[in-house]
Amino acid sequence: MARKAKSDSGDAAANPGRLKQIALTYKMTRKADPKVGLVVAGVGLVVFGVLLAIGFLIGHPVYLGILGFLLAFLAMAIVFGRRAERAAFGQMEGQPGAAAAVLQNVGRGWTTTPAVAMNRNQDVVHRAVGKAGIVLVAEGNPNRLKTLLAAEKKKMARIVVDVPVHDIIVGNGEGQVPLKKVRTTMLKLPRVLSGPQVTAANDRLRAMGDLMSNMPLPKGPMPKGMRMPRGGKMR
């Protein structure tokens, strides 16, 4: 009885948290998409109305009404989720580090290392390793990123010679991938590595280090006006 009471109290405490999170997500989405409430409600009413009408036609309005309610709730959740995701990407797009935030949510099986390379203009390259190989995701000026990507590939070529390397430049121009499509683009890549091969590649790259771990940060407050020197490494 004590365990059951504890479990019930935990569920009760979790539900307000979930409701609060949903409400917060709705408020944030509504700022970028003012019609989200009307669209979601409209989808729910249409689905419920269609199922209920079919129920009257076949003589089972109660059963079809219950089914319509459940399907309407599911449809509303799907539509709201997609519009919330679109609004979130719209707010993130163009912000420094947006690609790194997307990579952190690619899914299981991927190991992400943000900011493995950066130049003084704050163009940055992030790295993700999975069964598709190594994916370098770059954000910043496309012309400068080509040089940055080439340098990172050359550096990795000495460590992981048998692992395929893909590169993605985030943007809306020709040959670029919009921020909202980075995750789906990565998930569509063919899986060519086994689990042990992915682990071995991660170990080699980890031994090589990255920009953040190799950067000798000074003790105390960062000096004002400090900039990244040429070559992308602080000395």
Automatic annotation (TrEMBL):
Name this polypeptide is given: DUF4191 domain-containing protein
Transmembrane segments: 36-56, 62-81
Organism annotation: Streptomyces gobitricini
One Pfam family linked to the record: DUF4191
Keyword terms of this UniProt record: Membrane, Transmembrane, Transmembrane helix
Keyword Transmembrane helix found: yes
Region (Disordered): 211-235
Lineage, broadest ranks: Bacteria, Bacillati, Actinomycetota, Actinomycetes, Kitasatosporales
InterPro entries: DUF4191
Superkingdom field: Bacteria
